[in-house]
Amino acid sequence: MLRSYGWDGAHEHAFAAHRAAGLRPARVVLVDRGLATVVTAAGPVRATWSAHSGPPPCTGDWAAVTTAAQPELAALLPRRTAIVRAAASRTSRPQVLAANVDTVVVVESLATPIPAGRIERMLALAWDSGALPVVVLTKADLAGRDPAEAREEVAALALGVDVLVTSIATGEGLDILAAALTGTIVLLGPSGAGKSSLGNALLGAEALTTGAVRAGDGKGRHTTVHRELLPLPNGGVLIDTPGLRAVGLHDTEDGLQQVFAEIEELARDCRFADCRHTSEPGCAVRAAIEAGTLAPRRLDSYRRLQRESDWAASRNDARLRAERENQRKAITRHLRATYHFRGQS
Ligand SMILES: Nc1nc2c(ncn2[C@@H]2O[C@H](COP(=O)(O)OP(=O)(O)O)[C@@H](O)[C@H]2O)c(=O)[nH]1
Ligand SMILES: [Mg+2]
Ligand SMILES: [Zn+2]
Q: Distance of alpha carbon 278 from its chain centroid, rounded?
């Protein structure tokens, strides 16, 4: 039962101490209204967790669950991978969108112009998570252009990533997609891109709700409300997500270096090691732009995403410093109160 949710020997090994403590393994399917739906060997249960026991659970986590009438997530297994987006506000933490993902499917529709920057952003997020990205361009039947040409255009900004073209109307590309996916798969992309439709094609069932696109603006209704996890018929596990139009990057430097590998490679030939590729002499990046071998848009996009990632990282550092400071003050207050009390007695 749990095997179809991705449980393997390495998990069993990591779980030994929890087993000995009388806990049972479970995978988190979805988290909503303060409870987690988890799948155990005996089926799904709704479980609580204590706010003091580390980070909150998210879809894809493996957890150790108590056998009480009201099951509780006693611990989470260390995450093999985690897809992390920037915090929503100055005081909140970066948000884990999904854990223990092997393949991130970046889904974009061919019915609308290709959003190069958003694909680069999603790929950075995917690489940084530790999972392997794949780009899927959906709705080939609605493309106002040659899908093969669109595919080439995306392949040029998705270095080292498979780019597939699909259509659920004609069935194009669906076999290739199914073959390209392994392990736990997450579908990421804006609402209306065709994620749930792809999910249903992979599941071979209408298990996921899909939405009709509003006429005119090409946008979908928000039909998928939760991130949810389902086993695939031929092995593997699927996580469908609601639309992510604006996903902020959180400290994604490694992912960005991977996405913009050709710029990193060029930069090694710049005369100065700290070249910023603006007006330095002997700049190999600017030379490539002048020679027409590097699109200026790529460098602009790299800079913009780097700034965003750095900013989110520094904001998070500031939040952690503030948290530590508050903790220190609380401890000091506690000690003072204790000494004061002793002093009186
Ligand atoms: N013509 C066509 N329509 C599609 C395709 N894939 C999805 N759709 C439609 O696009 C709309 C949004 O799809 P959905 O899967 O709900 O998108 P999601 O929001 O990304 O999950 C639905 O009306 C689907 O029927 C496709 O390949 N071709
Ligand atoms: Mg959906
Ligand atoms: Zn340079």
A: 32
